[in-house]
Amino acid sequence: MKYQGGCHCGAVRFEIEAPEEIVVTQCNCSICSKSGYLHYVVDKEAFTLLQGKAQLSTYTFGTGVAQHHFCKICGIKPFYVPRSHPQGFSINVRCLDNPPSYSINTFDGQHWEDNIHQLRNDT
């Protein structure tokens, strides 16, 4: 199935391919808990940026591997390249217009190094 989503102001729009039912991850690391992010990781082939490339700004911290993409206008981060899966995108399911049915797994991102194996085995 194809699902579309975007930032709050609509400047950034994207489309993903995903099944009708998915499992998303809620992480308690500092950036995810402050932004309320719900992760669903897709391969780059399952992601299409429809509009707004020029409206994206990128934020990195720590190792610099994760590429957090934010809309320059409204500040929303609808997707990013995660450190755990740099070959794909983590989609904020809350930014999908009509998300698939989902269940939530929790991830202890405050202790990322000790727990990363859980994320890499789940996808």
What's the count of strands?
10
**Average pLDDT, to the nearest integer?**
91
Overall CATH architecture: Beta Complex
Residue stretches low in confidence (pLDDT < 50, at least 5 long) are none
Query: Percent of residues in helical segments?
Result: 10-25%
Proportion of β residues? 35-45%
Question: How many H/I helical runs?
Answer: 2
Structural class, from secondary structure content? mainly beta
Identify the CATH class. Mainly Beta
Q: What can be said about this structure in brief?
A:
By secondary structure, the chain is mostly beta strands. It has two helices and ten strands, in the order βββαβββββββα.
Keywords:
123 residues; mainly beta; Metal Binding Protein, Guanine Nucleotide Exchange Factor, Chain A; seven-stranded mixed beta sheet; three-stranded antiparallel beta sheet; 14% helix; globular
